[in-house]
Every structure is written in C-alpha cells, then in structure tokens.
Amino acid sequence: MNMSSSRKRVFSGIRANARPHIGNYLGAIKGMLELQDKFDCIFAVVDLHTITTPYDTKTLRPMVKDIVLDYLGSGLDPKKCHIIIQSDLRAEHLELAYYLGTIYQVSRLEDLPTYKEKKAQHPDYVNMGLLYYPVLMAADILIYKAPLVPIGQDQEPHMEVAREMARKFNSMFGQTFPEPQSYKTPGQYVPSLFGEGKMSKTNGGTIILTDTLEEIKAILAKAVTDDGKGERFPEAGPAANLVTFVELFQGHDRAQQYRSEYKESGIKYQELKAELAEAIYKELAPIQERRKYFEAHPAEVETILEEGKTYAKTIADETLREVRSKMGL
Ligand code: TRP
Fold this sequence. Notes:
Layout: E1 9-15, H1 22-38, E2 40-46, H2 47-50, H3 57-74, E3 82-85, H4 90-101, H5 106-110, H6 113-121, H7 128-142, E4 148-150, H8 156-173, E5 181-183, H9 213-222, H10 238-250, H11 252-263, H12 269-296, H13 298-326
Parallel strand pairs: 1-2, 2-3, 4-5
The structure holds tryptophan (TRP).
The site of tryptophan has 13 residues, from strand 1 and helix 7.
C-alpha cells in the first residue's frame, strides 16, 4: 500500500453522538468517498469530543463501532484511506491540544458562537472540555499537518481557531504547521422531513444508513405534507422538501413531474412516499450489504483500525517530537 505519497493530506472527523443519517451521507460521507481517491486521507470518529456534552457511558463504545461500520459500509476503503478512532491516539491528540492551549487566549474561546450555543443548550453541563473543544479539534488537524479539512459551514469558527493557532505557533516557535483550509465537497443539502432547516436529530426524524424499507416507510409516513395542490409550486415547505428528496433519490425528471402534478391534478403523497421509500432503500441496500460483511468480520475491522492507528501514530509522534523541541521542552 503506497498511500503516504506526495498527495495532500486530508483530515476529517465525525462525532460519536448519533449515527450518521442520510443527510450526513449525502452531505459529508459521499464527499469523503471522492476525496479518498485523490488525497492522503485520515478519517476519524472523534469520541473525545463526544464527552463534552451529556452522553451515555454504556452506549458510547458501541456507537463508535457502529460509526466505523457506517464508514466502511458507505464505501470508505481501507486500501485508499485510513480510518481511526480518536481515542486510540488519545495521548498524542491530547498532548498537542495542551500545548496549543498554552498559546491561545481564553477570551477568544469564550466568544465562539458554538461554545455559547452549547452553554445555552446545556446550562448544567458547562465544562472545561466544552471550552477546550476547538483546541482539541485544532490538535486533531494540526498533529497530521493536514492542509485540507472537509467540513460543514457550521464548523468555520473552529477552523478559524485552528488557523490562528497554526499562525501563532509558527510565529512564536518557527514554521511548523500549514494553515488548514476547509474543503467544500459538492455535498447535497438534505432538508428536514418535519419542518424547517436541514435533516438533523433536533429537527425530527432521521433516516439512518441501516434503516429497513419498513422503517423508512414509517418515517416518511410521518413526514409533514400539505394539500398537494396549488397554483405555483412552493419554494419552501412540505411539498418542496419532499420533492427535494425525490430529486436526490429519484432524479430530476421525476421531481419535475411532481412539480407539474402539483399545479394540475395534485400530488398524491401516499404514492409519492411509497415510491420514495423504495428509492431511498435502493440507495441504502448496497451500503447495508457491505456493512453486514464487516459486521460479520470484526477481526477485519480491528485490523483496519490497527493499520489506521499505526499510520496515524507515526505522523503524530513525529509532529510531537518537533513541537516539543521547538517549544524547548
Ligand atoms: N467539530 C466537528 C463537528 O462537529 C468534529 C471534529 C472534531 C472534526 N475534530 C475534527 C472535524 C477535526 C474535522 C476535523 O463536525
């Protein structure tokens, strides 16, 4: 395996708070699939970030394993990329996070919108880890000197922190880190089926990658609808959202048919939902099949994670040696 060539390095991670849903799949994971062909990618499950908000100690480890299986099922290919669990490299990531923390202002972290939101969300759970969240995230990226980070728009403030830390470190101790840039993959926006905004746990039901046809049907059955009829096809709302799903899973032509139907005979949502459920399931079926293979071969998954860890550790150790030396430790 020659994966450490001169290709640019990419790092990204998803938290282990919830299973990725089809929105995450189309928005982020599909982007990762493209990147693994072009770059030297390390994709992580960032479980140390998960514990900064309330979580269940009993479900954390199974959740991490489930997400690794979701990654592999989706087609992340261990021959092309490296998959790691952040806590398998806890000593390394946390050590660099500590060093980076010593060169950064507390007040800047307190001002971050993400921190303020979390404080408001969990007023009884305002802990140091939460304040430190962006520092650890910067360490995740900088420890591999990754210049490219595929990530959602909501993470931009954290990326700015990572860049500022890289700059500050370089100016204090000499050129060490590249300033990491967000990488926008051509991901799809997947709306919520239950109202405003994008599909998310907080916006109602989500379809996860292991849902059966029956489960998908049950979720779609609850999706909000309207009369299905009107003079103009609406730009937002239930009809628009459901037809966006049709567009994503059944293609443009079928979506256009529904848009015309809306203005003519009217959309029959029951039929739309039945057809859409089949189409979503068809997209998930090969993922579920691959996932089942890995689920049935846990030793193979362990080997993949071992390989990822070994690869990542070599890079991380080298960065830490350089950092300690530059900082005079
Ligand atoms: N904060 C990121 C999120 O919620 C997760 C994350 C942690 C991450 N460390 C990272 C993403 C490093 C990219 C790179 O989406």
